[in-house]
């Protein structure tokens, strides 16, 4: 994945969010989302705050955020300070801040050298490269766009480069999900058959450790067929697993398939 492709995909994702926000009546900005404690405006404020933070700015201190029931760690507390700082602002002002923050970041990312872009960096997934961090930003922003769309009942943008890159990011976690969380037994295998809007077949083989593989030698021990929308909402912890599993077709070991489905939520 080249720097140019990653940066352009992130810019395209911001553009899609911008267009969505421009269509929303002011009252819909207060609509609750699937994220505990956050409205549509709060989700946008979170994106703004993250980009401001990546531009070198620090959030205002907000006493008591660690006491909020949906704040469980330091990163969540940092996020909440940004969100809280924008709660009293109008939707128009938060939308303006979104445009300003993402424009600044787009300019900085475009100007960044390939060497700096590929340099080692902290990421939300641990130590990696700045390039990986920006691929995670695509995933995060695309997931939040879907949070907003779901809340205001405006489905869309469920395929294309940002969706594909987001699925790439989820795929990285599938070995952990199947092997560590679902405790799939040695010698077993799991296939996720995504039948649209993004179509993919993702395979995990448990051989010593659970690993994502290009293909399996034979039939998977358990195959879960679902839409890419259900898959991403489950992986992001945005959908009750019982609901998502009810929209999933299972072939093979039903017990293993159920354990894998309930292990899918992995984001913080």
UniProtKB/TrEMBL annotation:
Domain MDMPI C-terminal: 165-258
Pfam families associated with the record: MDMPI_C, MDMPI_N
InterPro entries in alphabetical order: DinB/YfiT-like, Maleyloyr_isom, MDMPI_C-term_domain, MDMPI_metal-binding, SCP2_sterol-bd_dom_sf
Source taxon at top rank: Bacteria
Domain Mycothiol-dependent maleylpyruvate isomerase metal-binding residue range list: 12-149
Record-given protein name: Wyosine base formation
């Amino acid at each position: 994945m080249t720097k140019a492709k990653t940066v352009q995909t992130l810019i395209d994702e911001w553009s899609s969010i911008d267009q969505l926000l421009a269509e929303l009546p002011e009252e819909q900005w207060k609509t609750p989302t699937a994220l505990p404690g956050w409205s549509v405006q709060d989700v946008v404020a979170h994106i703004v705050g993250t980009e401001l933070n990546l531009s070198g700015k620090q959030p205002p201190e907000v006493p008591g955020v660690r006491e909020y029931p949906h704040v469980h760690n330091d990163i969540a507390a940092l996020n909440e300070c940004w969100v809280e700082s924008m709660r009293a602002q109008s939707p128009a002002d938060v939308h303006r801040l979104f445009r300003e923050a993402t424009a600044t970041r787009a300019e900085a990312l475009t100007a960044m050298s390939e060497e700096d872009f590929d340099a080692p960096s902290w990421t939300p997934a641990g130590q990696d490269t700045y390039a990986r961090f920006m691929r995670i930003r695509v995933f995060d922003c695309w997931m939040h766009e879907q949070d907003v769309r779901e809340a205001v009942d405006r489905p869309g943008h469920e395929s294309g480069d940002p969706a594909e890159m987001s699925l790439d990011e989820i795929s990285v976690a599938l070995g952990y999900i199947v092997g560590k969380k679902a405790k799939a037994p040695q010698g077993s295998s799991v296939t996720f058959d995504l039948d649209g809007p993004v179509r993919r077949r993702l395979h995990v083989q448990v051989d010593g450790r659970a690993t994502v593989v290009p293909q399996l030698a034979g039939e998977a021990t358990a195959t879960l067929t679902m839409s890419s929308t259900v898959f991403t909402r489950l992986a992001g912890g945005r959908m009750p697993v019982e609901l998502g599993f009810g929209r999933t077709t299972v072939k093979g070991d039903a017990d293993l398939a159920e354990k894998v489905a309930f292990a899918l939520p992995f984001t913080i």
